[in-house]
Amino acid sequence: MSEWLDVVSERQRRVEVEGWTPDRDTGLHAGNLASACSPYALIAAAPLMGGKDTPIEAPPLLFRFEAEWNAITARRDMIKALVLECAELERMDGA
């Protein structure tokens, strides 16, 4: 259950510290947040499938927020993916 607390805490941090509020997210193009979550999830999957848990310095092509890219570890990247997906759902529901 602590993993969901980590996701909620990260979402709250992104809103309070980075300013990624639901109102700001609503102004984004549909799918931008979902496309940002995909690379984090894929990179997080690599060590789970026997690959290395190595951060990738440059954002993948699907990632729309180049200045925001910060892959760290598989667990942290999975949390980021979930936060971005939740933000996309909030944007969809608010649109």
List the keywords:
mainly alpha
Describe this structure in words.
It contains four helices and no strands. The chain has 95 residues and is an all-alpha fold. It has one domain. The longest helix has 21 residues. The N and C termini lie far apart (30 Å).
Backbone CA Rg: 13 Å
As a percent range, the share of strand residues is: under 5%
Low-confidence stretches: none
Question: Total domains, how many?
Answer: 1
Helical content stands at 55-70%
Largest β sheet strand count, sense and barrel closure: none
Give the number of helices: 4
Q: Give the termini distance in whole angstroms.
A: 30 Å
pLDDT average, as an integer?
81
Characterize the overall form: globular
Structural class: mainly alpha
Order of helices and strands: HHHH
Compact description:
With 95 residues, this protein is mostly helical. The protein has 4 helices and no strands.
Give the helices and strands, then pairings.
Elements: H1 2-16, H2 22-26, H3 32-48, H4 74-94
Helix pairs in contact: 1-4, 3-4
